[in-house]
Design goal:
The chain is of the alpha/beta class. It has one domain (7-151): Rossmann fold (3-Layer(aba) Sandwich). Helices cover 36% and strands 19% of the residues. It has helices at residues 23-40, 63-75, 97-107, 126-138, and strands at residues 7-9, 18-20, 49-55, 79-86, 113-116, 142-145. β5 (113-116), α4 (126-138) and β6 form a beta-alpha-beta unit. α1 (23-40) runs parallel beside α4. The two termini are 18 Å apart.
Length: 152
């Protein structure tokens, strides 16, 4: 589900009454749909390699967030290959040097996906967030969140 499909049928597929979807729910469904092909294949040779990425305000300690992300990665059976942090606050993803590095790792095949605390660590802007989800998916990689979009 994406921006073009902001409504769902409340009663039936044949056009029953429609209700607006929480924008976060639409983003979650888009992310899950883009992740499906990646999670459909499971290598028996190695664990999935993940980049854990944190964006904070300047002078904010990222250690507790990294600890939660490492724990989640371990529980999912993923190998944390890189821990990246931008202390830049709210900014466009393209202005975050370590986010660009995470993209590079995925683009070049050194990571199978990225794990973040919530979508705001990628972008607060819906269109920018969708763009980043698609970038990651186009490289046959996944985007995983500790807190799904509808919760933020």
């Amino acid at each position: 589900m994406d921006k073009d499909t902001e409504f769902i049928d409340a009663f039936s597929r044949s056009g029953g009454r429609r209700q607006p979807v929480n924008p976060g729910t639409g983003l979650r469904l888009l992310r899950e749909r883009l992740n499906e092909p990646v999670f459909a294949y499971r290598s028996s040779v190695r664990a999935r390699r993940v980049v854990v990425y944190v964006r904070t305000l300047p002078h904010q300690d990222p250690a507790p967030i990294f600890a939660a992300l490492r724990t989640e990665a371990t529980q999912r059976g993923w190998h944390v290959g890189h821990e990246l942090h931008d202390a830049i606050g709210p900014a466009a993803p393209q202005q975050c040097p370590n986010w660009l590095l995470a993209r590079k790792f995925m683009h070049e095949g050194f990571a199978d996906g990225v794990l973040v605390q919530d979508r705001t660590h990628i972008s607060r802007d819906d269109d920018e967030y969708r763009h980043e989800l698609r970038f990651v998916a186009e490289r046959q990689c996944f985007t995983a969140l500790l807190m799904p979009e509808a919760a933020t």
